[in-house]
Amino acid sequence: MIPRRALNRPAFRALSASPLVKAPYSPRHLLPALTSTRTGQLLARWQSTAEHAGSVGTIGNDKTGHIDTGPNESILFLDNLFPLKVTSLLLWGPEETRDLLKRFESSSFRFVDPIRLVRKALPDTLPIKVVEIIPRLKEGGAFVKFSYSPDVSLAEIERQLKEWLDKNPVTPWFNPLRRLKASLILGRPWLEDLYRLPKSRLKVEFVSAGTTEPPSELSQESLYSLFRRYGKISDIAAQPADSKVLPRYAHVDFVRVRDAIMARNCMHGFVHQEEYSKAPARLRISYEQRVQSHQIWNWVTSHPRIVIPILAAFLAAFTVAVFDPIREFFVRAHVHKSLEFTNSKFYKWFKSQTSDIISFGGKRKPQDTSALTYRKDLIESLHNSLVETTSTFVVVSGPRGSGGRELVMDHALRDRSDVLIIDCRQVVEARGEAGTIKKLANQVGYRPIFSWANSLSSMVDLAIQSTTGVKAGFSENFEAQIVKILHTAGAALKDVALGDRKQKTDPDASLTDDAYLENHPEKRPIVVIDNFMHKGDEKSLVYDRIADWAAALVQSNIAHVIFITNDASFAKPLTRALPDRIFNQITLGDLSPELAKQFVVSQLEAENSVPATPHKEGDSSTSTLSEKQIRRDLEELDECIDALGGRLTDLQVLARRLKLGQSPKKAVSDIIDQSASEILRMYLLNNKNGHNPNTSSGGNSGVSQKRWSTEQAWYLIRALATSPTQSLRYNEVLLSNTFAASTTSAATNPEAAIESLADSELISVKSTRGRPATIRAGKPVYQAAFKRLVDDPVVRARMDLAMVQELAKIEAGTISKVETELAVLSNLPNQPAQAGDRAKYLLSKLQGSQEKIMQYEKQMGELKKVLAEET
Question: What is the second-level CATH architecture of the domain 318-357+365-587?
Answer without folding.
Answer: 3-Layer(aba) Sandwich (3.40)
